[in-house]
Amino acid sequence: MCCESKRRFLLLYATQKGQAKAIAEEIWQQAGAHGLEADMHCISEMDKYNLETEKDPVVIVISTTGTGDPPDTARKFVKKIQDKTLPPDHFAHLQYGLLGLGDSEYMFFCNGGRTVDQRLQELGAQHFYDTGLADDCVGLELVVDPWIDGLWLALKKALQLQKEKEGMNNAVDAVSSSLSTAQHAVHELNLSSEVQNLKLEDDGAKGSDVLSQKLDDINLVAPARDTEPSLVHSVPPVSQSALNIPALPSEYIEVQFQDTQGENPHLSSLISEGATFEVPVTKAVQLTREDAIKTALLLELDIADTAFEYQPGDAFCVICPNNVSEVEELLHILGLSEKGDNFVCVKVKEGTKKKGASHPQHIPERSTLKFILIWCLEIRAVPKKAFLRALVECTSDAGEKRRLQELCSRQGASDYTRFIRDSTVCLLDLLHAFPSCKPSLSLLIEHLPKLQARSYSVSSSNLYQPGRLCFVFNVVEFPAGPSRPVSRKGVCTGWLAELVAPLLHPSKNTLDTKGESPSTEKISIFPRPNNAFHLPADPSVPFIMVGPGTGISPFIGFLQHREKLREQHPDWEFGETWLFFGCRHQDRDYLFKQLRCFLENGTLTHLKVCFSRDSSTAEIAPPKYVQDVLRLCAKEVARVLLKDRGYFYVCGDKKHMADDVSDAVVDILSMEMEADKLEAMKILAMLREAKRYLQDVWS
């Protein structure tokens, strides 16, 4: 039950990777200092709250996953409120404020939050506070921090109005006095993703969430002669500022070491998404030449003896481990090398002050320490500011302590973005940079997120290759830099490349390579079906595919499937197919030269390729990028989309390709329709809405 002396509000969060939960916990922690009590629940716990009868204000923090879907924890809630039989005044009694989290690198920015927000409005609910949309592309805190700052005044106003309606004016005198001086501020917050319009002001200490740290209390990190800031060194004004730093997060985990006897849990127990399948890797081919800038691999999995099903265009997830050498290094720094094989019991700390503290679902009740660090915790995660704040207390050197305080402070926000977030610094990097920092194992379990399975697009057709599943990926490289002492490969792609090294055949650049082996290497996977990125249901409908680099992956499955359908149904009418492919060099990273076979047998009607880094002696330089080739085919593209009502598929890099392709399509529609750009953008929006312009992109 909530404390009688504090006014209650309902706080709901819907999270995929823990970010929304962490922000909700920050709101819960700050509430007490403002004389409020947050009744916090995951939005999936619908037995613990009831919006139909809720009288107090509701605060919702919700993330977005996939291509714009609400997080898995919100699926039941969203399904419930989207019931078409609900009357338009169903939530007329409800007052709420919503904070959406998203990434503007993706087309449907903050769509999880927008979906819930729009539906609550349709059902009569009222905003007591403007919706905030935070952008992980530039830093969530740029919207989250001012949104939370303004929340308390809005909540008090909503609670005051609620009491007035109940005829309890005498109970709100104290709140009224605080409102009279700053009531206008609530509606002046511009909480959009256009963070350049945000002006963050330092209003000094604001309750228990902020501590003031005076400069003269500590030593500087480095000599004053250093004029450039770095991960470990600050310069004025940050180095000379009093700091507003977050409150210390409550500890809530304790770890007990046990003996070395027993067995670790099966990997399938770590996944809540459904059935997992352990399948052998039967083939591996390197599709790029050794001198290519990126290394692309194709792997083939044997799924014949499983119930795994997929369609071309679907994705699936690979359960991957952290790099073992990095885990060993982490154990050494923490002084736990001798205990890696010991079983540990993880429990909630008795008497913890953390609201709703519970055993982390991604941590087994009993497993070895190495198992937790290898399979359960994302040790490569970029540390959040709350983690940095906790690490301050584990750091003995005064200069290092000060720098960590700066990095998690309001004043050091730009340094955090530059040297931690944008540099993708991880825990190991921090421990190397701040050697006096010695966190406990329990602290790592509290702050490191769940190690997520990695998603890949299927690059095959079960009709073409029964019992086989193929996928293609680039081996991700993170070069060494000022904030990262050593280069690293991607968590999953690096592991897969090492796993299949014995399978790789010296002959490359062809799918026909006999890179097969009786290898028994297996990986664990689970399906992640794509609800929209599939071939048109009507085979007579034409479609265009745009997939440079590994973005071509799902389209290989499309073409394989179409080839088999043409063989099996010679009497069917099949629409024309267009493929726009691009890479850097024709002789180094033209991933699928078998595309010519699809062209020759009629499966593929038009193949357009371009090579961005190849030099040309032609009088008119050939196009470098897929968007340039699209413009050269403007009339045909417009015909397929407008006259023939065809489909348009884009797969690949969001930041450097998908947006440029979208702009090219707008230009094509504008030119061919002889319409202004705004009208062309409306047509493209209609194509998206009709699921005829589809994207499978990543940042």
Automatic annotation (TrEMBL):
Q: Which Pfam families match?
A: FAD_binding_1 (PF00667), Flavodoxin_1 (PF00258), NAD_binding_1 (PF00175)
Q: Which GO terms describe its biological process?
A: cobalamin metabolic process; folic acid metabolic process; homocysteine metabolic process; methionine biosynthetic process
**Gene3D superfamilies annotated for this entry?**
3.40.50.360, NADPH-cytochrome p450 Reductase, Chain A, domain 3, Nucleotide-binding domain of ferredoxin-NADP reductase (FNR) module, Translation factors
Please list the coiled coil stretches.
none
Start and end residues of each FAD-binding FR-type domain: 274-536
Q: What InterPro entries would the database entry show?
A: CysJ-like_FAD-binding (IPR003097), FAD-bd_FR_type (IPR017927), Flavdoxin-like (IPR001094), Flavodoxin/NO_synth (IPR008254), Flavoprot_Pyr_Nucl_cyt_Rdtase (IPR001709), Flavoprotein-like_sf (IPR029039), FNR_nucleotide-bd (IPR039261), NADPH_Cyt_P450_Rdtase_alpha (IPR023173)
Which cofactors is this protein said to need?
FAD; FMN
Keyword annotations: Amino-acid biosynthesis, Cytoplasm, FAD, Flavoprotein, FMN, Methionine biosynthesis, NADP, Oxidoreductase, Phosphoprotein, S-adenosyl-L-methionine
GO CC, any one term? cytosol
Q: What is its main location?
A: cytoplasm
EC number(s) of the enzyme? 1.16.1.8
According to the UniProt entry, its GO molecular function terms are: [methionine synthase] reductase (NADPH) activity; flavin adenine dinucleotide binding; FMN binding
Domain of life the protein comes from: Eukaryota
Location within or outside the cell:
Cytoplasm
Q: Which residues form the Flavodoxin-like domain?
A: 9-152
Catalysed reaction(s)?
Answer: 2 cob(II)alamin + A + 2 H2O + 2 H(+) = 2 aquacob(III)alamin + AH2
Describe its assembly. Forms a multiprotein complex with MMACHC, MMADHC and MTR.
List the protein's name.
Methionine synthase reductase
| Source organism | Falcunculus frontatus
